[in-house]
Amino acid sequence: MPYRRTYRHAVATAALSVATAVAALVMTVPAASAAPIPLVPHRSAADPADPADAGPGAADGTGTGPVDEAWRGAVGAAGLGAGRLGRGADHLTVTVTRSGTAEADGTFELYCHPHSGSHHAAARACDALDRQTSWGKDLFAPVPRGAKCTMMYGGPATAHVTGTWAGRPVNADFRRTNGCEIDRWNRFQPLLPVTAS
Question: pTM for this structure?
Answer without folding.
Answer: 0.56
